[in-house]
């Protein structure tokens, strides 16, 4: 029975991570379009989804604990799904558990790829903004280390410096 609870908990995690994946894909479009209002809404959505994931992760952890107790293991081990599947002896149950594991890991891999792409897009956008600001704001050129004294005085006049020798 506790194995079924674990599988249900993992399926809930898959559904929630797919919601996060969809949100990340919409966020990519908003980043490309530079739509900050949509980005703010999406960040709020992601925050709510993360709270759901934390809650579901706690459910999964409880289901793992119940499964281990059912198998006679009283330790609070932090086992991953592959290690848990070694404790399942029914072929059909083991297959179901491995299918759910594969589906969850594929969803997490896709989510990581989309998030990495979004991060690169944001970095490129920030680099472009920085470059645009550098182009728009004319920075004064720095004087070289050595200049002819006549040129130095003319440059001092340009910057409004007072020549105390005069």
From TrEMBL:
GO terms for biological process: bacterial-type flagellum assembly. Gene3D superfamilies: FlgN-like. It comes from the Bacteria. Keywords: Bacterial flagellum biogenesis, Cell projection, Cilium, Coiled coil, Flagellum. Residues 94-124 form a coiled coil. This is Flagellar protein FlgN.
């Amino acid at each position: 029975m506790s194995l079924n609870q674990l599988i249900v908990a993992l399926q809930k995690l898959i559904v929630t991570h797919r919601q996060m994946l969809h949100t990340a894909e919409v966020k990519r479009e908003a980043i490309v379009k530079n739509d900050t209002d949509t980005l703010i809404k999406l960040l709020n959505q992601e925050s709510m989804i993360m709270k759901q994931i934390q809650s579901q992760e706690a459910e999964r952890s409880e289901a793992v604990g119940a499964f281990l107790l059912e198998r006679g293991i009283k330790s609070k081990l932090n086992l991953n799904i592959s290690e848990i599947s070694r404790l399942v002896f029914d072929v059909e149950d083991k297959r179901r558990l491995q299918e759910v594991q594969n589906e969850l890991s594929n969803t997490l891999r896709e989510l990581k790829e989309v998030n990495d792409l979004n991060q690169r897009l944001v970095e490129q956008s920030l680099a472009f903004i920085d470059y645009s600001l550098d182009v728009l704001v004319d920075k004064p050129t720095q004087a070289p280390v050595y200049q002819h004294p006549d040129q130095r005085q003319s440059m001092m006049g340009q910057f409004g410096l007072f020549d105390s020798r005069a």
